[in-house]
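Re-run with default settings, no changes from the original entry. Doing this only to confirm the output is reproducible before filing.
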Amino acid sequence: MTAPRTILTAWIDGIGLMGPGLPDWPTARSILAGNAAYAFSPTLAPPPQSLPPAERRRTGLSVKVALAVAQEAIAAGQLDPRQLATVFASSGADGDNCDAICQVLASDDRHISPTRFHNSVHNAPAGYWGIAAGAMTPATVLCVYDGCFGAGLLEALTQVAAEGNSTLLIAYDAPYPEPLHAARPLPAAMGLALALMPQQSAQSLARIQVSLSDAEPDVLADTGLDALRRAIPAARGLPVLQALARGEARQVVLDYLEPLRLAVVVEPCR
């Protein structure tokens, strides 16, 4: 007898996006809807103005991207970040910092600066978010290699379903410099944030339902966008954003952990 599928449900109240050629969600929405052409360009992440100057100077690219998309999703949903649990998911976090520490450890002078050290831990963006947003709510930090977006989405939806928590998912990645880039070739930094709510509100954009699947993952028709989807773990959620951009009620299948996929049903509210 086949066991029934477990389906996790939430409402999307805000979206944040930043990546190569996708500087924010409004720009990306037009591209994903087919109203504008996609062109690859470097990811430009601004310093997080919500941080005090001392902390702002210490942030690397991955923190800047994570905080930028988190703040965009919060602003779009008119939400109070102090009321949201957070799930941060990244396959590698701060590649530049990792490279710098490796170079120091391989040299005769093995003294690592305190700033390098505290930025090296995988939960650094969650700590910076707590400072920037004044949030003291629970934060979960995940690293599941190429399955990071799927794992983050499942964790965030589980918190919504099991605890009734409004939860902000932040998936982000940043490239490594050489020689690490040759072993882990991420082409650019990218971040994607979803504000997931247990109940529908006036700000809700869509209902999302997720279950496990073994179907083939969706491929984006635009070859440039699909290259991002395949190359950057945080970009695995682009088919979901495309359905939202087009206002389509549909199911998309996302890559997760072999042989599993995620079947995601999106039903726009407006």
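The longest helix spans residues 61-77. The mean pLDDT is 92.
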